[in-house]
Automatic annotation (TrEMBL), chain A:
Protein name, entry field: Thiosulfate oxidation carrier complex protein SoxZ
Domain annotation Sulphur oxidation protein SoxZ: ranges: 9-102
Pfam families given in the database record: SoxZ
Gene: soxZ
Domain of life: Bacteria
Alphabetical list of InterPro entries matching this protein: Ig-like_fold, Ig_E-set, SoxZ, SoxZ_dom
Length: 108, 288
């Protein structure tokens, strides 16, 4: 499959103090480390182990993911916004690579 | 006497509870006349039949699904088929094969060059003198223009590419040509549609024409339209090709299925596509 690709849905505009819904998804196989290949050898674990969402440098939401989470992990959460700024989403992979994406939000 | 009374009351209560349970578990069918709108664009899910089409009205499989399933297709973020579409887009721009060309090297921007392609498939290929599906065209391009190995019919690469190309036609009406040499294939497909196959001795038409809209065990029988392929099915937890769906149907009626990409399935694809003439292309659709 392709390299993991993040997908994020954040509204472009919000009013001050509004609670907005943020949806995120990353395409990732989330290999649990429990499975075996055709030769009977264990397929090494490779999962997204941590997800963080920052708004203007401040952590809004963060979580650790475990091997039981299925492929293409989807996370939905809410955030209350006071000022315009940028959301930064980061996914941390077991192999050390990070995937990130940013979204701008205007507060009126 | 009192004892008997008590039993009666109890059974009445049980009966009542049973009734409630039946109501609760009934599938949530979508209401009549609900419109499929994706990103503000309304798609045609019901259309009057063209001449010779026995279906009236022609209805997209989307109209047969539950509200929850329908909702997933209205939002490209929620639509679980999209990660693979993204993969298809990546492949479109990736060089492959001995010539080092990508799809984009010749075809440029897919949103322009591939617009309407899905809607007219399968199509007669004059050079090869046979009927070609979208998969056939992709592999022809890979072999002859890119110098690359053909993809397997049901590979993630092929599904990603057919979904990405199909998406460029989303909203356009299905419009396959059955004129000229394709006519023979159309007739062959039509004959297959009305031929009984397998141990259950069923023809496509018996379910998808005569019994459309009724229940087949726990599932709601649709018209078997293919305007949304490759489709994301919950059962597959992934995208699947038209021929995979055909094969699934044949397995269900305990028949010996034809191979993916066989002449039989290609002919059937043409006939079934024609039965959905005028419906919007919904690629990648979401079904159960």
């Amino acid at each position: 499959m392709a390299a993991p690709k993040p997908r994020v849905k954040v509204p472009k505009k919000a009013s001050k103090g509004e609670v907005i819904t943020i949806k995120t998804l990353i395409s990732h196989p989330m290999e649990s480390g429990q499975r075996k290949d055709k030769k009977g050898e264990v397929i090494p674990r490779q999962i997204i182990n941590k997800f963080t969402c920052e708004y203007n440098g401040q952590v809004v939401f963060s979580c650790d993911l475990e091997p039981a989470v299925s492929a293409n992990p989807y996370l939905e959460f809410n955030a209350k916004v006071e000022d315009s700024g940028t959301f930064k989403f980061t996914w941390l992979d077991d192999d050390g690579s990070t995937y990130s994406t940013e979204n701008k939000l205007t507060v009126e | 006497m009192a004892k008997i009374m008590k039993i009666n009351v109890l059974s009445a209560a049980l009966f009542g509870a049973g009734m409630t349970a039946v109501v609760m578990t009934a599938p949530a069918f979508a209401e009549e006349g609900v419109k499929l709108v994706i990103d503000g664009e309304e798609l045609t899910t019901e259309v009057a039949p063209q001449e010779g089409n026995p279906l009236d009205p022609v209805r997209s499989g989307w109209t047969f699904r539950s509200e929850e399933t329908q909702a997933l297709e209205t939002d490209d973020f929620e639509n679980p088929g999209f990660p693979l579409v993204d993969y298809g887009e990546e492949l479109w721009n990736t060089a492959d094969g001995s010539t080092g060309k990508s799809c984009a090297s010749c075809h440029g921007d897919a949103s322009e060059s591939m617009k309407g392609v899905r809607a007219s498939m399968p199509k007669w290929n004059k050079e090869k003198n046979t009927l070609f599906t979208l998969e056939d065209y992709i592999n022809l391009s890979r072999e002859e223009h890119q110098g690359a190995k053909p993809w397997k019919w049901e590979s993630q690469e092929m599904l990603g590419m057919t979904a990405y190309i199909g998406l460029q036609s989303r909203g356009m009406p299905v419009n396959v040509s059955i004129d000229g040499p394709a006519k023979e294939w159309f007739e062959k497909g039509k004959k297959m549609y009305y031929t009984r196959y397998g141990q259950l001795d069923l023809a496509c038409a018996q379910c998808h024409e005569d019994n459309q809209g009724t229940m087949i065990r726990a599932d709601h029988l649709s018209q078997g339209q293919i305007n949304g392929f490759p489709t994301y099915r919950f059962k597959w937890s992934g995208l699947g090709s038209i021929h995979r769906r055909f094969k699934g149907c044949m397995d269900n009626i305990r028949a010996e299925p034809f191979k993916r990409g066989s002449d039989e399935f290609t002919a059937l694809e043409l006939y079934v596509a024609w039965r959905g003439q005028g419906l919007s292309v919904e690629t990648p659709a979401v079904r159960n």
